Amino acid sequence: MTELPPQLVYDADEVAEARRLVICAPGALTRVEIFDPLRAWRDGGWAPVFYPFPGLDGRPLAPPLDIQAAAEEIAAFARAQAGKQVCLLGFSTGGAIVIEAATRLGPKVRTVAIAPGLPRAGGWRTMLAATRDVLGAALRVRSVGVRRVWLEYYRVLLFGRRVLAHSDTRETSRTLTAARAARMVYPEGGLLRAHATGLKRWAGPRRRLPVPGHVTLLVGDADPVFSTAQTRRFAEAQGGLDVRVFPGHGHMLFLTEPSVFDIAREIFEGDPPAPAGASGVSD
User: Fold this and answer.
1) Span 45-70, mean pLDDT?
2) Is pTM beyond 0.70 here?
3) Which residues are bridge partners to 46 per DSSP?
4) Which residues form a coiled coil (predicted)?
């Protein structure tokens, strides 16, 4: 594995004083700002730690994302946090990273993955579905311009293919997409390759999860990237992960159902923190 400089971003003073840490990994073409709602968690003694993706949030574009390297850095940081409760939270490709990291840690660590990336990026089914959706978006906007096509495709990411069939999701998807357009990360300048290659190469966790039930997957039943059936098969293969499905939602659950962050907090705080002097994490 290529040796990389540290990538985690955090406030050292805040982390030192916190009783609880939540380590967050975003998804492809996604900034760590998606975790801004976690600022409200400070009232419960939480401090956030972020793993930014290549080319975003001050991180250089090269080298590209490596799932195993990211998971190992997160796990090493978690193991060093004696006396603190450590939880992991990821979105999409970040979900794959935190699941992989969880296999390296002890049974007290809780993990939540929102619309998690699947091994080999979902394989040929996901590749064909994404190709169809992007081509459909290009036909609807009658353009091959990356930004115009991406904004149309983003609507499908929000609510799935049903966005085209129902007036409420059509309008809501337009509103949400327009609101994010100014801060949208587009698949340009090598970003998509730098973010997606790692998930395509990831064959799944190399180790068994200490407690599969301590990993929760939050998914939309209309996710056009990774279907609910694909996610359930993955969950079963990992020993029976907790899968919670949100009807009527697609891949971008953090936008269409912001309560996922409240749910994550409830899951994390449902277990008592590790006792003083023990980190609750291990090799």
Assistant:
1) 97
2) yes
3) 20
4) none
